[in-house]
Known about the structure:
By secondary structure, the chain is α+β, with helices and mostly antiparallel strands. It contains 14 helices and 13 strands. A five-stranded mixed beta sheet has the order 9-10-11-12-13, covered by helices on one side. Strands 1-7-8 form a three-stranded mixed beta sheet. The protein has a three-stranded antiparallel beta sheet with strand order 2-4-3. Helix 5 packs antiparallel against helix 7 (160-170). The two termini are 41 Å apart.
Amino acid sequence: MQRHISNQNARRLFIAKHGLVREPGRMLGKQGLAEAIDELGFVQVDSINVVERAHHHILFSRSQTYRKHHLSALIEKDRVLFENWTHDASIIPTAFFPYWKHRFEHEKQRLRERWKDHFGKEGFDDDLDMVRERVARDGPVMARDFDGDKPNTGWWDWHPAKAALEFLWRTGELSITRRDGFQKVYDLAERVIPDEFRLTDVSREEFVDWACRSALERLGMASRGEIVAFWNLLTPQDADEWIAQNRKSLLAVNPETMNGAKGAASYMLAEHEHLLDDIPEPPGRVRILSPFDPLLRNRKRTERLFGFFYRIEVFVPEAKRRYGYYVFPVMRGDRIVGRIDMKADRNDDALAVRAFWREPGIRSSKALQKDIEAELDRIRRFAGVAKSTFEAGWFCADHPDP
């Protein structure tokens, strides 16, 4: 027997689980930031800097009192966060490191086979040994410290030492001790990860249970595939076996889609069923989200719950882009109301706003425009530019042809 969940309640629960129901003007502080990242599970890191880098924008969306130096301190001094890989490079609570050790073992085999094909089977182990010895002897290093090591491939423009650094980081021997600008600074994991986490081991059974249970805690409800994809740590078979073993502690739910259709067969922890009876309403104000916001990570789920089709067009050839290089989703209350093309133009010291496109069913109104402009001004200050500029006809622009 499945419990039916209305689309509005499904949306609101999902928004609440992603830290977007608290007033964004509340004071966060360093400890609050650590707790917010723990609640999300991870925050994706990306190099694109159209307005701000993704991890900063994601956290600012939760609280406009977010401060970058707090994040740096949590990673580089307090060591309560570390950088590694989920579905992509991410900032993760260090308390999760014991579970990541299972990922490291899997990645050793997978990446070895994949990367040796690109960097040459003969010298790969020699490159790993050379980098290990260099880091152990000299301490923190960057890829540019190996400039004399010329590239032997055009793949990512990585030279062999850079590939070795990334391999040793992705498999847990090295950790990111800090960033210099946006460049990684690598060191031995034993110098970065506190012993209480680095030396703790968990069994395979404990690892699978944690990965499934913690994914459900952070998603509110999820299908088998969404449980697997959340941390990108498990196989579908792992999830199937866990669901079968824990069926009595799970509640089968049917979240309604935006168009009223039956959603994907999903589960939530039975102990959390009470959350369905008192789902908080998110603040009514506008928030402009990062394209890499975890709320949007699963594009199919975003379309089911919010009726919002979205893709990042960074890697789409310019002539084939529908909206633009890097267009930001716009959320108001519990709806995604549109998307906006904006850029921090450092040369002009301005937030340059090109266009806002509203979603079908969203009314154009002065109130909506005022709310968007208020959020744009907050974004402008966060980006550190002096003014905002608007192209003619920017508000509720006509949708380009598909």
